Amino acid sequence: MLGRQRLWICWVGFFGFFAGCLQPSTQRENRTTSSSQPIIYGKDDRKEAVEHPDAKLRQLSAAVGALVTSSRVQINNSTGAVTLASTTLTEKVKASPDYDGKDLCKEEPFRDDPAPASCSVFLVGPRLVATAGHCISTAASLSESAAQAWCSSRVVLFGFAKNKEGKLPSLTEANVYRCSRVLLHKLTRSAPVIDIGMFELDRDVAGIKPLEVDWNAKLSSDEPLAVMGYPNGIPLKIAAGGKVTDPRTQNGDYFVTNLDTLPGNSGSPVFSTQSYKVVGVHVRGDRPVYKLDTEADCNRSNVVPENPGKQAATYMKHGALKRCTQNADCDTDQACVRELCSPKQPDLTVTSLKVTTASPLLGLPVNVQVEVKNIGTADIAQGFRVGLWWSPNTGICPGCGQDKEVAFLDVPKGLKAGESYTGAFGFKAEDPVQAGRQYVGAYVDDHNGAIPLANGKIQESNEANNFLSVALDVKRCEASCPKEGDVRCQGQRVDVCTKGALGCLQWDVSEFCEAPAVCQEGKCVKTCEDTCDTNGRAECNGNKVRECKLQPSGCLAWMEGQTCTTEELCSNAQCLPIPRLDDGQPCKEDNDCKSKACGGTSTDKVCLRPCTSNSDCTGLSGHPFCDKGFCQPIPKGGCLTIRDCLPTQICSANQCQPDPKQQGCGCSASSEPSNSIPVVGFLLLLLPLLRRFGLAETH
Length: 699
Hints:
Number of strands: 44
Distance between the termini: 131 Å
Number of domains: 5
Helix content: under 10%
Largest sheet: 6 strands, antiparallel, barrel
Strand content: 25-35%
Strand order of the largest sheet: 11-12-13-19-15-14
CATH architecture of the largest domain: Beta Barrel
């Protein structure tokens, strides 16, 4: 039956009393004072499977499995041990919004059991299981891609049941079966009301006999029944003592019972205890499962009288699949697979994986050849990718744990049913590949970035056979020399110890000693001494060029070469023209200048410009005066304009001379001041200023 999905439960209201559909309500309306909406009918008949008094039911219970989301199941790749991620039943109830965040009462049975399962399934063929349709999807219709997406994330656990000591046995990988393909999904919400599903596992279930099914059961009221499954997701329980309360013979879609079931029992087989055959699959029941005991402040099972029962089970006839011996027995879009007409689907698998060496050297390339085959019943039109994955474990799981892709190849075209593809690619034995024993595997990645389906996946009939791995024993290189930088002589050859590309120390050739030199203590020793270091190297030696040359003695010595002229300068082993400075540029000596004249103060010398008159010095603000044949600063007493002279002077012939107008002044000897003295004094002071600014003429 469904978990906490009220909307799912409420659709039953379309079909009458049989399902006890609830109207939306709060938990506070379902206190222990109410007797509505039963879930446990009279005495609680649920028992541990191993403790049930009916030996036949105990035997049949082995074929009932727990449907679990694959993310809850962790498998140790080394030991195969299984770890389940789960809360207890009490924690599950407390976390539910339906139960006020209260614990189960301490007297409640199974309160400390782990509760990882979402639904129940049961074996009806070597690898074929039946369950409720809504356990696969609550949608009325289901596309193949959606069905496969659900399938790839589900596993079935067989043996998830307590032993006689009341403990759960240790589960291993052998108890875990993966869903490989969905074969049937029926879910209707209008008459006839049908809820059933069938899917296939990745392999035959070992050591367990499929249940016998009455595919055309004719039930009557009060026929005794039993059910077994995983109520609320806890370990396997058997509940007998129930009966048919309404066979709905005319409708023939489902029948009504008073079996003690809970969410998680959805998909459980319902047996007639007269024939011990499966007559139906449990699909729904009443709510709430628990009610709040306000006095004890905890939740208790919702217990009501035995009648009327309102639990529903779909007749098994709605799950019957068409049997076949050949493809011709099936519809055109079906194929005969293991004597069942099934939707045609491709199935990619890696059939062969070969590596160049099982013991590669760390850091070196490894070449791989892979063969992929479509062993399914449908052609693949789109391209797909084969990834090469590294893993510390035998199983390759893309996106899981430490597994990493080290290379890939794209198959541009699809594969027809039965067709194979062989390709080659490689990888380098470096991070994440490490030294030691590990695994590399080819994985059919189900997609190709260039030619994807709408959802990027190739929908296969079996997603569990998509990889093949081989073991690698990766070795490190061995050192051939003791310490990096060590040298040795091998005849006339000098070897040096260096770290190679793989990280190991190895002898590498450094040089060969040429006669007359000999190799001694890891170096070439000569019988003479070099006076220079590199054969053919040239340099300036004063104003000459010299070159380092190998002498017949085997040593290097300087040989004199070209001598530069007085107009040249030796620079970079060449005689180059001496560069000369333009007029006005800073200089140190006459030879620095094109004019061959460097003058000025001791701290500020520049190249002088030749001149015959001041006009030749135009533009040289610091050297505007032509003197001694060169443009120079204005000398003391020299001038170009009156501005260069004192106020009492005039500029004449480029010399500052006394102003004759200011000489021989006739002044009164009277001691009495005249009224004209202040005026004359003022004019005398003003006249030089007027001259300086050119406002008074000088005659």
